[in-house]
Design brief:
The complex is a heterodimer of chains A (110) and B (339). By secondary structure, chain A is mainly alpha-helical. Chain A contains 7 helices and 1 strand; from the N terminus they run E-H-H-H-H-H-H-H. Helix content of chain A is 48%, strand content 2%. By secondary structure, chain B is an alpha/beta fold. Chain B is elongated. Classes of the chains: A mainly alpha (110), B alpha/beta (339). At the A-B interface, strand 1 and helix 4 of A face helix 5, strand 14 and strand 17 of B.
């Protein structure tokens, strides 16, 4: 039945329901993923960001919040240029991290 | 040297200043309201950044000040201004005439139950930084479950940076204290998920940033940028915390077994009481007003009255000790000019 309106699903994050298994798997491969302090240097330097919205900061955050789908679609825009790795003040090898994320989160055909 | 020097407050500032003054040949008098020396620091367990046991620090300070005249369980009843000195009447009936007073009355911990939305004193599983530190010391708190806490949260800035709580200043040490306590909890309960809800992380001091990186990298503590807006209790007594995850712009909700409120520093009401007796001004932040907040932080606007430590604003332990030493030297020089 069409009421002329619909209720959109809640965008709230419930940390009780986040499945951390894959993120822990990622952490085992890339211990530095914990070090991100969300400064946004990677995003501001990313050449793909301005036309695709790719943001390494958001990727790391979304993985911790269980928003894996957002990550996979964002990741398609990465050109692996490595500029984010050069600017990261915490010395995270983001380029390598991106490859690891692709390995873990895409293996099961997502 | 006969000149009386009265130190009001037997916390770390008072003890350190007394120790230094003893070294300079004076015989200072410490007036302490409670029944023991060491103030707030005596209640703490370990001190950042090197996890120095607080009882070692306090023990050393007390040992250095034993030669001073110490009055415990003593308050100041009133102060009379004489021509060039003060007559201090103590609650034990003793009166002291002095030209030099050092105010080391320190701070009070913000009463977390004033922030009703956080539920301190209402929900069982909400505790404060001081309660947690007490538990580290004694292991005695029925609210902390030794086996099987799934998730624990820390709320930064409780009663700090909060105009509504009449406490707009930053309490300075709670960020690093939260990180320290989060690490200590994680060391005891490695399987527990620990969240820190923060507005900013002000890691200004020596090795604080290393502490923060360590908390993230080595302990996997999750930092969520957003101030907790409300806390409620669910049917099994756990607490549900709501905040905005401002980094993703979405509301966030999590159920916790324990919530620790990082209560900040406020001016000790006893500082205000002493200030009123000697007519010392109060600064706009509610703490005692120095002659100059850059160059003369340990001088009051009145001759012969000096400050050290957190009576003039939130301070760390090393800052307080440095001020106490500076005040001792200042008193020494002031005493020379009087002769």
């Amino acid at each position: 039945m069409d009421f002329g309106f619909k209720i959109s699903p809640s965008s709230a994050i419930n940390l009780d329901n986040v499945d951390t298994v894959k993120f822990e798997q990622l952490h085992d491969m890339e211990p530095d993923v914990y070090k991100c302090m969300a400064c946004g240097s990677c995003t501001s330097t990313c050449p793909a960001n301005r036309f695709s919205g790719m943001s390494m900061r958001k990727v790391i955050l979304a993985l911790q919040r269980g928003k894996e789908k957002d990550v996979v679609s964002m990741m398609r825009n990465c050109m692996l240029c490595g500029k984010c790795t050069m600017v990261c003040p915490r010395g995270i090898n983001t380029r390598h991290l991106i490859l690891s994320i692709c390995r873990i989160y895409r293996e099961d055909g997502k | 040297m006969k000149e009386n020097i009265v130190i009001i407050g037997g916390g770390i500032a008072g003890l350190e200043a007394a120790g230094q003054l003893l070294g300079l040949g004076y015989k200072p008098i410490i007036i302490e309201k409670s029944d023991r020396l060491g103030g707030h620091v005596a209640d703490w367990n370990c001190l950042f950044p090197d996890m120095t046991p607080a009882k070692d620090v306090v023990g050393r300070l007390i040992a250095g000040a034993t030669e001073a005249n110490i009055f415990l369980n003593t308050e100041i009843s009133f102060v009379n201004k004489l021509k060039d000195s003060y007559n201090i009447m103590l609650s034990n009936g003793i009166s002291i005439i002095t030209k030099i007073i050092l105010v080391t009355t320190g701070f009070s911990v913000f009463d977390a139950s004033k922030k009703e939305e956080y539920g301190y004193g209402v929900y069982d599983q909400v505790i404060t930084n001081r309660d947690l530190e007490h538990w580290f010391n004694t292991g005695n708190d029925r609210r902390i479950d030794d086996c099987g806490m799934n998730a624990v949260g820390f709320v930064h800035c409780v009663g700090s940076r909060d105009e509504k709580a009449k406490n707009p200043q930053c309490s300075k040490v709670c960020c690093i204290t939260a990180v320290k306590q989060a690490i200590e909890l994680k060391q005891k309960f490695p399987e527990t998920m620990v969240y820190c809800f923060y507005m900013d992380l002000r890691m200004f001091g020596k090795k604080y940033e290393d502490f923060y990186i360590g908390a993230q990298r080595d302990y996997g503590i999750r930092f969520i940028r957003g101030r907790v807006s409300e806390v409620s209790e669910n049917i099994d007594g756990r607490v549900i915390v709501k905040a905005e995850d401002t980094l993703s712009g979405k509301p966030v909700k999590v159920t916790l077994d324990l919530l620790v409120l990082m209560a900040g520093m406020v001016c000790n009401p006893d500082s205000t009481k002493v200030a009123n007796m000697i007519s010392l001004p109060i600064d706009s932040d509610g703490f005692l007003k120095s002659r100059d907040n850059v160059a003369d932080i340990i001088d009051s606007p009145k001759d012969g009255i000096f400050y050290a430590g957190a009576c003039t604003g939130p301070k760390t332990v090393p800052e307080t000790l440095a001020e106490a030493r500076a005040a001792a030297l200042k008193i020494h020089l002031y005493n020379k000019t009087m002769q």
